[in-house]
Hints:
Layout: H1 2-136, H2 140-205, H3 209-212, H4 220-228
Helix pairs in contact: 1-2, 1-4
Keywords: Coiled coil
Amino acid sequence: TATEEMSWDLRADVRRLEAEAAAAQEQRLGLEAGLRTARAELAASRKDASGLRSELLGVRVAHENDRDRLRAQEAELEESRNLAEDLAQRVSTLEATLEDAYAVHRRQREEGARVAEERYGMALEELYGAFVKLDEILNPEIARQYEAWVQSNAKLERDLLAERRRIARRDEQIDALKAELRRAAKQIVDLIRAGEEAASAQVRSRPSAESVTALPPMHDGARRRRSWSGNLAPEVKGPG
């Protein structure tokens, strides 16, 4: 009858609705499971991003510390250069002082030699006069004066020879001191150049900012998250 047909139709509609409801329920459960998985992967990604940020912050702090140490080394190098320049100026001043002292000593030596020669000439003249007087008046007093003049002349020659030897020794000492100063200045310049080359080599061997800020490779959870859905979590980017 029409009532039975309607009843069968209603039952068919109810079964269809129940099947659709079961399918919708299964789809909802699947979506909830996928959402839970996505939330878990999002939490893991956020945790990994936090770890990466911490590592990046540590790398940046280490890089800043390296730059501070490098600036301190550059300041020490600049101070060493200033000290070396000051020392070089002092060495130059000392060399100029030695040159002036040597010039004064040379003038004094020449003046002393001239005075000694004048005294020697005067002694010879007096000796010649004594000989003349001896020829004029031969007596014991003149003989004693002659002997005294001979001894004085011999002593004067010995003093002059000793003075010349002392002046020669002083000249040798001054030349040796000047040579030692030149060697010391050359050693100082060599040490400064070696320090600058070592500092330059150390600066060249330090890692650059691009190399220290490189991030580690992505882990499996983040790789799965990107493969499942590209829009559930923001992408973690590097600095800059």
